[in-house]
Amino acid sequence: MARGDECDELILLLEGTLGGELVGESGKVVEIEKIHAPGEVAIGVLFSSEPRLPVDLMAVEDVKLLKIPREAFLDILMRDRRVLRNFLTIVSDKVTMLASRFYDVSLRELMEKVANYLLELREKYGITRFPLPMTKEGLSKWFGATRPSVSRVFGILAKRGIIEQDGKIVRIVDEERLLRISHGELK
């Protein structure tokens, strides 16, 4: 599905994973989000005045979709207040997530982005030694940077003794300094 395609159906991802990307005129690719099943696709544009996909969607793995026409879904929303409330919560959470993602992609410097990402993984795994779930190429798309720039940041963090890296395995050595970098306090 391509950016600008009409989106006049509720699209639910039942199986698989989709990647949402923006491709600039220069060819630069920025990964906006990954949608894992079960999940919703472009839910925030369904009832907009111009319901069009805001990003290009690529299947990361085989997917199964359920499409419900907008008017049929509107009938469901009008009949069941609980479904309506859940829908509004999902849309609101998506707007919040996208605003945060936009901030990460556009305003933070790459060092801050990488530091924040590593701290999020530390929180997710609950330990200071963990595997990177993406390649450097995947991370470069995620951060909206080049692969060499991402590798350079990991190298700087390792040289400063903040992290250790062995292939895809990262160990946070100095969590306090990493936190300060993520807040823009250290460069």
CATH class of the largest domain: Mainly Beta
How much of the residues is beta strand, in percent?
A: 15-25%
Extract low-pLDDT stretches: none
| Element pattern in H and E | EEEEEEHHHEHHEEH
Q: Strands of the biggest beta sheet: in what spatial order?
A: 4-1-6
Total helical elements: 6
The CATH homologous superfamily of the largest domain is called Jelly Rolls
Q: End-to-end distance, in Å?
A: 39 Å
From the spread of the alpha carbons, the general shape counts as elongated
The whole-number mean of residue pLDDT values reads: 90
Give a written overview of the molecule.
The chain is of the alpha+beta class and about 190 residues long. The protein folds into 2 domains: about 10-105, Jelly Rolls (Sandwich), CATH 2.60.120.10; about 110-180, Orthogonal Bundle (Arc Repressor Mutant, subunit A). The chain contains 6 helices and 9 strands. It has helices at about 70-80, 80-105, 110-125, 135-145, 145-160, 175-180; strands at about 10-15, 15-25, 30-35, 40, 55-60, 65-70, 130, 165, 170. Strand 8 (about 165) and strand 9 form a beta hairpin. The longest helix is centred in the middle third of the chain and has 26 residues, at about 80-105. It starts with 8 loop residues before the first strand and ends in a 5-residue tail after the last helix.
